[in-house]
Amino acid sequence: MPGHVRRSFVLSFTLLMLPISVVLSAESRAADRPNVVIFLADDLGWNDVGFHGSDEIDTPSLDRLAREGAELHRFYSTPICSPTRAALMTGRDPMRLGVAYGVIMPWHTNGVHPGEHFMPESFREAGYQTAMVGKWHLGHAQQTYHPNNRGFEHFYGHLHTEVGYFPPFANQGGKDFQRNGESLPSEGEGYETFVLAKEASRWIEARDPERPFFLYVPFIAPHTPLDAPEDLQEKYEDLDDNREPARSEQTDFTRRTRMLTLQPSARPMYAAVVDAMDQAIGQVLDTLDEQGIENETIVLFFSDNGGAAYATGGADNVPLRGGKGEVFEGGIRVVATMRWPGKIEAGSKMASIMSAMDVFPTLADAAGVEALNERKLDGRSLWSAIQGGKDIPRDDYLFFASETPIAGHFNLTAFDDDWKLVQEVHQGLLSADVVNHLFRISEDPFEYHNLATEHPDVVAEMAKAIHQWRHLYPASGTRAQLVPPPGWRAPKDWATYPLPVETLQDEPAPGMPPEFALPILDWQHGENGRLIYDCEPYGFMGGGICK
What we know:
- The protein is an alpha/beta fold.
- Helix content is 29%, strand content 16%.
- Helix 6 (192-206) packs parallel to helix 9.
- The model has no long low-confidence stretch (mean pLDDT 93).
């Protein structure tokens, strides 16, 4: 073969094989990476796990994770459900996503902007198998919001919350139980928590063992309305409700009202639901053991918000103050653990502040996965603090908000390692009242001493920061809505509800104003919210111009 022909043949063969070698290289790199399993509880109380000193509820699986890994001792979620899930999936602040003040209700048509990048998309691009088993709650009206369009190859579960623990797993009367967009028969499936554990274990066993996996298991447990198998109900039927006051006006009022009206305590049923969730987690951990992959799997567990400590919720957050829906520590500081044998010291405790926004960058850092987000992450990696015990102080404020459940009643907070400001805003038709609570949180983690009158300068600085942060909210973001628009009807089957992508426009709707008018209208809206998505306002009164 002549030399020039031979060179041409070699070059052609090399170019032909290049895509194959790139794929093989990506797969070989992926094979060396850890699996990731994220368990998410729904409304778990701080004082309801054994490793926090509670002996009322059996939680051996969660205690095992803490014993074999690290407790993330100052882990913060948002006060309510959808914002935490949005922060977890994107690494971004729910305030700028338009999912901060309230959860996504069944009658809402919004979700997280399809232009936002989700964590499983980065892991999938890195060669991971991706699956979600459980509760979504991040949009359901269009296929663009569906888990299968947000990086999850496999989705088994429900789009909403409050689907019940037993068949037919319905929300607002419509069945909500599917596999990858196809409705599943739910009659006879059994207890929902155990159904999810069974599916998670099945998926792990059926995976491609040559590639790592990313598995997200968000339970509805222990969210209301509470229900559990009869044997667990019997196990806790004699549990007395001896919870100390939550030191929250609304929460403690509901408990007093329950006792005055002679209603039964939710505490025994709540305990049964938590026990069942712990058993389900134990089943998945056993599957990892049986597959021989426990040492090459990162397992993260946390709750989407503090425990529902009000009368019908049954949770206990003591010694933390308050609970779900509030921004006192009991509403946002949550139970959290992370295990990776050989990489994370067993029985360790990470004391740096970590939030749901930090999970994406932290897991990507730990796994050596490139985060492919184009928009700037609001979270930060805490991997060096978790793995090496290195303290990573905060040099800026962490913010949370909630308007749930009462419209016009806002719970707001900003805090760092030292100070925490809690604002309760009561907004009426003609007035707005603000109550400030300032805590030296480094010295008073249980929020007993309000120092607002002693440090008005600190209150003013932090209140200004909260105000500016709230400017980020899209004008049509979620708000507190407990009932649907008059006459709204739910579908018979939620799996049929999302509008298919092919029936939608290619680009997000621009809205009513003409494009040239948007900047000035955005400026005029000011603190009422952003008309331009992902607008970081600055300039006069903090509005109008976007960074």
